[in-house]
Amino acid sequence: MKKLFKLILNIIPRPILIRLSYLIRPILAFFLKGNKFTDPIDGKSYKTFLPYGYGQQRNNVLSPSTLSLERHRLLWLYLKNRTDFFSAKKKVLHFAPEQCFLKRFKALQNLDYTTTDLLSPIADVKADICDLPFEDNSYDIILCNHVLEHIPDDTKAMQELYRVLKPGGMGVFQIPQDLNRAVTFEDNSITDKKERAKIFGQYDHVRIYGRDYFDKLRSIGFKVDEVDYTASLSAKAIKNYCLAKGEIIPIVYK
């Protein structure tokens, strides 16, 4: 199964994968029903989660029903338990909206919710993150998760995110990050998809962020909290929800 998933991820374009996944999810969820692992986003449990990864594959990480990964389930728990995201009136901008969140966030009556992406077929507004069509100081919350590693000029993208966030507003800017690496690595000469997958972890990634990612956000003007929410969870909960222990959620403020 691991080889099949890896082949599918690397061959089929992402917009097509998104559309196909709506058909496949109910089938996967039915056959993998169990009680060993739980997706906190929909509360359903399974005997196993699915493997995932463009380069090196991770076992037991992809929820069959919501298609959430470790980072999505971690963020859901953080937003639910540590913020007023699900209750307070907020104007929200969500980049590259994940399927596990999209319908649930749209259904929240407290949110004025807009999604945007350059390529995603499920986004409301087609836009380049480096040249956004939104007014200054427009949004209370910006969700931009696992996007910046795809963007050649991530400095310009961060500046645009800062521009459209309201003073006092909050952003969540998750990225794939190697916390053992002090300095971010990027090499624009690497363009071959197989090489990118091997070096950066995915064929369309252009860098591996190190610990200096947080300081780069600060240099743009953001106040940054490096939140390890797994530190507040039990080992049993981390295992049950299939989370990545020690993963940092970058919470930024303007």
Structure notes:
The structure is a single chain. This protein is α/β, with parallel strands linked by helices and 254 residues long. 32% of the residues lie in helices and 23% in strands. It has eight helices and 13 strands. Strand 8 (139-143), helix 5 (154-164) and strand 9 form a beta-alpha-beta unit. The relative contact order is 0.13.
Describe the SSE topology:
Blueprint: H1 2-11, H2 14-31, E1 33-38, E2 45-46, E3 50-52, E4 58-62, H3 70-82, E5 90-95, H4 99-106, E6 111-117, E7 125-126, E8 139-143, H5 154-164, E9 165-172, E10 185-186, H6 193-200, E11 207-208, H7 213-220, E12 223-227, H8 235-240, E13 249-253
Parallel strand pairs: 5-6, 5-8, 6-7, 8-9
Antiparallel strand pairs: 1-2, 3-4, 9-13, 10-11, 12-13
Keywords for this entry:
7-stranded mixed sheet, globular, 254 residues, alpha/beta, 32% helix, two-stranded antiparallel ribbon, 13 strands
